[in-house]
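Researcher: For the record, we're logging two predictions in this thread. I'll number them. Prediction 1 follows.
Model: Prediction 1, sequence and structure:
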Amino acid sequence: MAVVIIGAGIIGTSTAYYLSQSETPPSDIHLVESSPKLFASASGYAAGFLARDWFSAASISLGRLSFDLHKELAEKHNGYKNWGHTRSTATSLAETVGDDGEADWMGEGASRAKAAKRIAENDDTRPVWLAPRHGRPDIIDKGHGTAQVDPYELCQFLMSECKARGVRIHQPAKATKVTRDPSGALSRIHLLSTETSEEYQIPCTRLIIAAGAWTREVFMDFFPTSKLRMPIFSLPGHSLLLRSKHWPPPLSGAFPQPHSDDTKDRGNDMRNRPLSQPPCHALFTSENLPNSVPYTPELFTRLPSGHIYIAGLNGKYRLPALPTERQIDPAAIATLIATSERLLGKGEFEVEREALCWRPTTDRGTPIVGPVKKGNEAEEGVWIAAGHGPWGISLSLGTGLVVSEMVEGRDVSADIGGLQL
């Protein structure tokens, strides 16, 4: 069985990771990525916020599986040190918290905090970097069902594991055509190296399209006569990576951070922070922009890097052929900086990175994870794994495991019946 995965973002790489430790020989797994830079869109520039229960009924099983897999992976491979996996207290400064997990918060242009099912009892936990005038935010989750990672570092880890196991990486390369054998079964994929212009073919009996916001374009290129509607669209958004004078906080106490087995040589981290008070925070709030444009800023602190990530300002920007062709909108960056000044204080932070990425979304608000269907019969050998919206990092590991199980014909670890085409 030769498996070709189109898209080496976090969904595609997670799928290759789990396939490579199962029944499929790693040398028969091919990751194809067209971008000259790996993880150049949402996989590398997302917030990295993880949640266990902030999902609709269709996604909740996958959400819980993935959250547990994130924790399991971090415990096994020192995720705190290698990609910043840590518990995170979710808080809100706005009346945007839902109560049933079913809110269409993306469609309403609201905060993802509307997907939370409950508000935890308030205590004295407060982000040390939040400007004093804002008081104490409401607590949504004290870190029992929420966590934080650095998505780029997580992607790098997964990719390094795939390479070490012998997974074949084709990058930068554009997949141009699918070839079938006389029986109609998948046979080969045609690739074009965008560095050398060399055209070549690789065997393919199982095809997984996990190309993020570009999934619809890839599907149409492969199957131009298909009548199947691929309801995946791009949701572009800007972000900033900040450094604050007040983050990370001074060390105190004498307890190790959970989900980590190595507490040495980390500099100013939180290895001595009490277990009952996770030091990282996610802060959800809202602002009013001209012309009633929905704007729900989200801030996330990271350790051990000491960064603060801010996003939440979406817009209408053309999806480029490659994510490296992005053009930052100065007006969007100015808005995010103004929000940062309001929340952190003027002169209290420095901007280390400006970014724009495209997240893949669907019109139904849930990802597509499952086989491509032709009429009432599954078209043998083709799967879609895309459309995760702002939850791509959180749902990545669960999606990768479930897709690998489907490809190998095994029982799946989560109920994804409501996520298929």
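Researcher: Logged. Prediction 2.
Model: Prediction 2, sequence and structure:
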Amino acid sequence: MSAPKEGPNPLRPYYVPPSAGNNTGTPSASQPSPTLGVKYGSSPSATSQSFGSSARNILADMDYSDYLSDPSPSSTATVKALAEQALWKYTSVFLAQPFDVAKTLLQVRMPGSAPPVRPRKFRAVQMKPENQIKRAGFRYSSAESDSDSPTYYTRPKPTGLTPPRRPRPRRRFGSPDRDSSSDEDEPHISARRWSTHILDIKSPSSLTAALSTLWTKEGAWGIFKGTNSTYVYSILLSTITSFARSFFAAIFAVPDPSLSFQISPSAGSVGGLDILSSPTPMASLAIAVSAAGIAGVLLAPLDIARTKLMLTPSTHPPRSVMSTLNTLSSWTLPWSIAPVTFLHSTLPTFMSASLPLFLRSKLSVDPVLTPSVYALAIFVGQGLELGAKLPIETVLRRGQMHIAQTGSQAKETHTVVVTGPYKGLVGTMRSIIYEEGERTITAAPFKAGATSRTTSLARDPERKKGQGLEGLWRGWRVGMWGLIGVWGAAAMGGAGSKGGEF
């Protein structure tokens, strides 16, 4: 018994038929019932058309305005949003580039390497007394001189006790004189140290001193060197990291760590990664670290070119990204700096992504229940991350300049500072702490009742070889100020809620 076309069904007076879907009336011959069509010999095409129209009608009646603010953005709006995001990214890189250049100079620079005086190629010819008299306007004749007068301008004859003087070897015209060089006893000074572009940085740990010296030497172009390469590197790094992370998450059936499933994404995510909401946090952590390592290894040649552009004079070509890449011996990661590069890429991601998981599982600090303690712990953790990253970054920059100088296809690579040696990860750290430069150690205060001589000896500062542990953390101040600025902007409701380094 079919339901009437108009009015409620007397057997079901409180039933309201749905407005979407098939009609409640009797199906016509052209449109058979989808539930009885196959049983009574209706065609499958008619059944599929009925189900398709039913689904379209149901989806058309649904309202997605509560879930999507703009369900169908236009192409113009999409292009405008991408242009604004690219402009914002370039502006942030442009403002941070002077501090990055100064930090790189301090990390690579060999301490105590002031620009030496350039040696003279030709020594001044000493004029003979006869020539001096002729230039004064007098005529000198040997016949007019008295034979009894002593000869003041003749060389005395060697006595028997005086050893005979060895004759000087003849040299070709235009060759530099050995006596004129003040660095004959220093064969370790290479030819590149005589470059006129070497900066005289007074303080080895001052960013402002490095910036002012570079500004005086090269002007505004000097402090913004490598801006375009840094911008391209940052864009490619984030793109390759996101792609590799999503690819591995899809392959291993793990939620993408960059997608947050919490009500407040900024509460539990650090650096754009959300490990807490993942059902398998350890697998998500491994995927995030692996993606960061792959991106760092693939972009290692571009990072070498970026470091080379920062440390070479702004007046020396090439200055473009592609031209600098062409001067490298290979577009792959050299084996000598492969461990340092992989560690530099993966360590910050590992520390920032595993910190929320450690706080929640071991210390019971939750971003929802204890937000203040959680925010303070995240800030301290990012400071520790900066402290662990800077020594590895110092070693990496020296290794990159070593590759750029030894493996470059150009004739000679001039740098604005005398670069320190690269001896591997542990060897370079040991050389910085114990071998390079000198540091002053303040003596301990003298005890009461000590003699005057002992007091004077105790007050004298002691000079020790090497930079000490401070040499591994060059540029830590700009990192801490950037961290404080990002968290300050997040506290005021800015765009830095995810945290990070300036």
